[in-house]
Write the structure tokens for this entry.
Amino acid sequence: MLLENQVVVISGVGPGLGRGLALQCARAGADVVLAARNALRLAEVAKEVAQLGRRAVPVEADITDDAACQRMVDTALESFGRVDGLVHNAFAIPPLTDLATVDLEAVRAAFETNVLAALHLTRLFTPALVEQSGSIVMINSAVLRHSRRTFGAYKMSKAALLALAQSLSTELGPQGVRVNTVAPGYIWADNLKWYFDYLAKKRGVSAQEVYDENAVTLDLRKLPEPDEVADAVVFMLSPLARAVTGQCLDVNGGEWHH
């Protein structure tokens, strides 16, 4: 119960890591405020949290909308009276194409979600987090660790998110608020399973073969699952990491060493 009786706000609650974050925080003893654009998905995850014996308050919100972000803050404080943790999981992937040809408007849109929205939401929650000596965790990506073609625009936005987290750590640390980053690689969830099935059919091989080809590049020979990545976030939110701030923890099964 590392987060017993704490309140954690999670943005970008989808069927993969977002759901895993909500459930692992609940298993660790936290009540949660869940934000996403899909109301039905929010209701499903909130029901699962309730089955674990914790409270979940869903907020249908687009984090690039200022009014929606303020509604998240108001709902959290009206429902629980406090906020101990904030997890930025919402993200946007710009077109996966070379920087020489990528649509700059699409890149700007990705920066709006991946970086500026995270900053805006953090600003709004800062007074509540200062009151509780709280913790912020930003979900980044293993794209930080490589420079493969077509990933340039995505890496730009995630590198900016890392810089944001580190700078906020310096600014908010004197007020008792910690800011850290968790950077997963592939996460073995529904979207990736669909993609591997697609690749398998395209190549005329089994999905297991595609999985094995990717897993062999990891030290642990196994792609991390949502709960495993979420556990790293729980650690960063918890008192066990009370002296950890400004750090980026890679959760990739050993694909990259940093």
User: Anything to note?
Assistant: The chain has a mean pLDDT of 96.
